[in-house]
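input
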Amino acid sequence: MLEKTIIGMATLRVLSGSIEIFAAILMIKFNQIEKALLVNSGLALVGPFILLLTTTIGLLGMADRLNLWKMVWILAGVTCIFIGIRK
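output
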């Protein structure tokens, strides 16, 4: 039997992948660079949000197995990722 945490994380990743495929189909349908860049910019907002949600679900699922210091390190790592992708 799968854990609820795993199902939640996998569902978010399937949703994310579906959004990516839909965006690619839109780019092909529009067949214009300007519109393709607009769709791609929208994806830039979705990706980090999905990463944050998936990581949060995973951390909540492991909260009883991690000590506070490890949680701080994981959150610091995620924060570094978001700082690194800022424009």
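quick obs: The two ends are 42 Å apart (CA to CA).
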